[in-house]
């Protein structure tokens, strides 16, 4: 074989392979779409790159895919590197997410507990559909829309989902009443059920009033005003506003509340963003409690609108802040509806307290580290010692009264109170983890319901239970539930266990107005705050 023939024999397979590959590539250029147009060299005349990619996938991808599903997955990915509070809310979740802030929802008006594989009614909302139908506390709900809910592995949210619905829509329930040993079938029309955001307003003593605000919803200022008026009628001379555990809500509700305590033209908060010009929120002088001494309680969970309230009181030297450093959320979101019923909560500005400090904690190291911040604070000892908290001097501000305050990561209280873990034992933790204390409280009320019907105050409840050996009976109840007796743990935690048990019994019977005055005995932050007026 000649050299040329040998070279042909070697290179011919390679040339054939290259020809096939090039042919495949050229063929791909001219296959185009159904109209014979090239899909590689021709770009759409309008639309974003994301729209182009979605269109290509939907029309030409090898398998059938849902472009709607792709969009649902793409939007969170698009937002993931923005701040932690810019979030996408799918249409299916929007109603549930908004309910706490709306101040009401469509339902039948009951509170329940999963008790011994049944749905036991703890409380019936006054004026709601269930009360009008004759449902009573202690009744067991056995069916919803002809489907049994007894003994099933249903979560609370599953049951709530069956009972909730648009106002005016019907729902059938079957209720077993032990006192008459009968099951009552009834059809209810769902009503507008209030979701209170002010848990309680009561007088601690002859001078000090206490208001617990759990969130800033659409009805919070109205509820807060009602509470203040009630305390005023009872002779309040000093006020404690408890915002511990309050993660925020509507800015307008916070500023309306702040306005009650400030004289005219005092800065409450201001906001500013790239496309949002500075907006000042100042008091108008119409507040009815401008001279009432105020203390605000906060903790590491207090955020957003809670921090606006606390910051305005602190920066105007209007009252003392007591507790632990707040969360550190200084960003303002607007909720914008999208065409399919979903929504985008978009951060549009930062808010600043009256002295000009932004209390937003850093988020440049990612969302995971941002939300892990509270764990790091705990590990570093911040919940136990004030000295473990350090602020940058560049973030120092001064109030009109000469007090030093800091920005850059939450509101630092004027009076620091460490977290209280006294009385905690492994035995108590096991009881709490399994919900034993709350379950036994319900069983106690269930047993003595008829005898306790006339009790109206927490003092009435305390007087009733004092000779009932509730702790001894709780220990026996817990033993049957798998938490073995622990005499050492019980001695260490007896006060905590007994006080919580009494408070839960009072709550089941007469709501939060019974719970808070009793649980106060364990609340060292509240007790300490009363001494700082």
What this model shows, in words?
With 533 residues, this protein is of the alpha+beta class. It folds into four domains: 51-80, no CATH class; 105-194, PDZ domain (Pdz3 Domain, Roll), CATH 2.30.42.10; 198-337 and 346-416, 2-enoyl-CoA Hydratase, Chain A, domain 1, CATH 3.90.226; 426-530, no CATH class. The chain has helices spanning 3-31, 49-60, 67-79, 91-102, 129-133, 156-163, 220-233, 251-259, 305-315, 367-371, 373-379, 426-433, 436-447, 449-452, 458-465, 470-480, 487-510, 512-519, 524-529, and strands spanning 87-89, 104-107, 110-115, 118-124, 140-144, 147-148, 170-177, 182-189, 191-194, 198-203, 208-213, 238-242, 267-272, 279-282, 294-298, 319-323, 331-337, 343-352, 396-398, 404-406, 415-416. Helix 13 crosses helix 16 (470-480). The longest helix is centred in the N-terminal third of the chain and has 29 residues, at 3-31. The radius of gyration is 31 Å and the shape is globular.
Count of DSSP H/I helices: 19
Number of strands: 21
Secondary structural class:
alpha+beta
How does the major sheet shape up?
Answer: 6 strands, antiparallel
Portion of residues in beta strands equals 15-25%
CATH class of the largest domain: Alpha Beta
Number of spatially distinct domains = 4
Mean pLDDT: 89
Distance between the terminal alpha carbons, to the nearest Å?
A: 110 Å
Q: What is the CATH-assigned architecture of the largest domain?
A: Alpha-Beta Complex
**Envelope shape:** globular
Please give the radius of gyration in angstroms.
31 Å
Give unreliable regions as ranges.
1-41
CATH topology value of the largest domain: 2-enoyl-CoA Hydratase, Chain A, domain 1
Residues in helices, as a percent range: 25-40%
The CATH superfamily of the largest domain is 2-enoyl-CoA Hydratase, Chain A, domain 1
Protein name: Peptidase S41
Transmembrane segments: 9-30
Organism: Marinifilum breve
Family: Belongs to the peptidase S41A family.
